[in-house]
Amino acid sequence: MGDCTSSRLPLILSLTFYFTSSTIKPIMKQTFITSIFLMFCLTASAQFKGGVGVSFQIDGTLFGVTGKGHYAINDDFAGQTSFTYYFNELTIWALDFDVHYAGFELDVADFAISPFAGLNIYRFGTGLFSLSSTNINIGVNATKEMGSIELFIEPKISLGGGTSLNLAAGVYF
Predict the structure, then answer these.
(1) What pLDDT digit, counting tens, does each position of 36-94 carry?
(2) DSSP alpha helices (H): ranges in the chain?
(3) Longest distance between any two alpha carbons in the chain, whole Å
(4) What is the distance between the alpha carbons of residues 24 and 29, in angstroms, rounded to a whole number?
(5) What CA–CA distance (Å, rounded) separates 25 from 125?
(6) Which are the contacts of 123, defined by CB distance < 8 A and separation ≥ 6?
(7) Beta carbons of 172 and 82 less than 8 angstroms apart
(8) Which neighbouring-strand residues pair with 122?
(9) Which of 68, 76, 93 is nearest to 150 (CA)?
(10) Is CATH 3.40.50.300 the right assignment for the domain spanning 46-172?
C-alpha cells in the first residue's frame, strides 16, 4: 500500500471540494469521493492504473466523462471499476465492476485486445424521481502503450433493464 503523493493531493482536494458542493446528488458525492480515494490512495504499485476518458452511449446518444481504476490481479485477470457521468437534462450515471481476461489477448495494430464481463449499475432521473437498473457488461478493452500513458478504447454492451451499446476512449496513467 502506498500513500497519496504530494503531486496527487491538490487534484484530490479540488475534486473533493467540487463534488461536495450542494448541487451534486449525495449518492454521486459518495461514489465519486470513494472512487477518487481508491484510485489515488490505496496502492502505488505497477499493478494499478487509473484512467480518465469520454464515453458515448450510442443508442441513447448520450455523451459523458468516465474515471477508471484498473488492478491487475495476476497475469491473466484484472478487475476494473469505472464511474461515468452523462451530460443530459436528467441526472444519468453508470457504475461498472468488470473482470478483464488477459489470458486471451490479441495484438492488432499495436493494440492489446482482451475481453471482459461484469456488472453495470445504471441510474437516471430528476430531482424527485429516479430509476436504476442492474445490467451485465460484455465487451473488449483495447490498449496501446505510448510512453508513460496507455490509450484505451472500450466498446461494450450492457444487457438487462437498461440495455445499451457504449464506446469509451481515454488514457490510463
Answers:
(1) 555 554 444 558 999 999 999 988 789 999 999 999 999 899 999 999 999 988 889 99
(2) 9-19, 26-41
(3) 48
(4) 7
(5) 11
(6) 27, 91, 92, 93, 94, 130, 131, 132
(7) no
(8) 94, 133
(9) 68
(10) no
Radius of gyration of the chain (CA): 16
Question: Scanning the structure block, which residue is given the C-alpha cell 444519468?
Answer: 92
Partners of residue 7 on adjacent β-strands: none
Lookup: cell for 98: 468488470
The sign of the torsion formed by the CA atoms of 103, 104, 107, 112 equals negative
* Single-letter amino acid, residue 51: G
Give the β-pairing of 91-101 and 77-87.
Answer: antiparallel
Cell of 24: 451534486
Can you tell me whether residue 128 is helix, strand or coil?
A: coil
Q: Which three cell numbers stand for residue 39?
A: 484510485
- Residue ranges per domain, the chain? 1-44, 46-172
Q: Is 22 helix (H, G, I), strand (E, B) or coil?
A: coil
The cell for 79 is 478487475
Q: Are 101 and 76 in contact (CB under 8 A)?
A: yes
Q: What confidence tens digit (pLDDT) does each residue in 106-132 have?
A: 878 889 999 999 999 989 888 788 888
